[in-house]
């Protein structure tokens, strides 16, 4: 009979581990989605600035904040850097979105394997 109580304790730990792992998946998914949202906002801001700078004379003074230091450049010098940053942001969004999809699939596989259903909170 002593073996039965040991099995019961092992089952409780296993349930706790499953719950912990499910919470980790959920937390990672939220973090990835949050980061994608931040980058999409930054991409939108870059697009707005690029549109504005592209419309002005290329020799016009332009100020850019780099690591907390305000640097004076011309619009013609700043535009390529802005476009490069925009491309980098797009690439980061694509990468994080792919990671989110992969993590989501991994979580769904985990849920199916362990017969887990996520209960939604009451409204």
UniProtKB/TrEMBL annotation:
State the Gene Ontology terms under molecular function.
unfolded protein binding
Q: Which GO terms describe its cellular component?
A: prefoldin complex
The record ties this protein, via InterPro entries, to: PFD2, PFD_beta-like, Prefoldin
Chaperone: is it a keyword of this entry?
A: yes
Q: What are the alphabetically sorted keywords of the record? A: Chaperone
The protein's matches in Gene3D superfamilies, at most eight in alphabetical order, are given as:
1.10.287.370
Q: Name one GO biological process term.
A: protein folding
Q: Does the record carry Chaperone as a key word?
A: yes
Coiled-coil segments on the chain, per record: none
By sequence similarity, the record places it as follows: Belongs to the prefoldin subunit beta family.
Give the PANTHER family listed for this entry. PREFOLDIN SUBUNIT 2
Protein name (Swiss-Prot/TrEMBL): Cochaperone prefoldin complex subunit
Q: Which gene encodes it?
A: GIM4
């Amino acid at each position: 009979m002593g073996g039965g109580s040991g099995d019961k304790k092992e089952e409780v730990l296993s349930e706790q581990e499953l719950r912990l792992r499910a919470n980790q998946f959920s937390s990672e998914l939220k973090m990835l989605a949050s980061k994608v949202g931040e980058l999409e906002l930054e991409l939108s801001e870059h697009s707005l600035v690029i549109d504005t700078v592209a419309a002005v004379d290329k020799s016009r003074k332009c100020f850019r904040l780099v690591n907390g230091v305000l640097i004076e450049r011309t619009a013609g010098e700043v535009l390529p850097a802005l476009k490069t940053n925009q491309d980098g942001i797009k690439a980061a969004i694509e990468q994080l979105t792919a990671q989110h999809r992969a993590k989501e699939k991994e979580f769904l596989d985990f849920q199916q394997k362990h017969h887990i259903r996520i209960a939604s909170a009451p409204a």
